[in-house]
Known about the structure:
- By secondary structure, the chain is of the alpha+beta class.
- It has 2 helices and 6 strands; from the N terminus they run βαββββαβ.
- The protein has one domain: Alpha-Beta Plaits (2-Layer Sandwich).
- Helices cover about 25% and strands about 40% of the residues.
- The longest helix is centred in the first third of the chain and has 20 residues, at about 20-40.
- It is flat and about 40 Å long.
- The mean pLDDT is about 80.
Amino acid sequence: MNEFLIVIHRDLTSKDAKPSPEQMQAAIKPFQDWIGGIAAQNKLVTPPKRWESEGRVVSQNNVVTNGPYAEIKESIGGMILIRASDYDEAVEIAKGCPIIQWGAKVEIRRAVPTE
Length: 115
């Protein structure tokens, strides 16, 4: 069984970047159900986390800037770590993320085993 990082990217700049309270309320139950389904299959490694839209970026020569960069529309809206046999299974799990219907994108990356 492999571990995959599921990263939810959300739009920070469009007029729809901030969902209404009604949209947030409507998203809570389907999101909880989606996470609960992953956990019920013993495929949830870490629970989801939400991230602030602000951050810092460290680059070469220890230059620190406020991030994410303004010209980038998307930012990380959440992350979870799951177990899946391969990319196909991880993608199928990610397709169930209900936040996609509100324009979010879900990125999937396999963890590289360390020796």
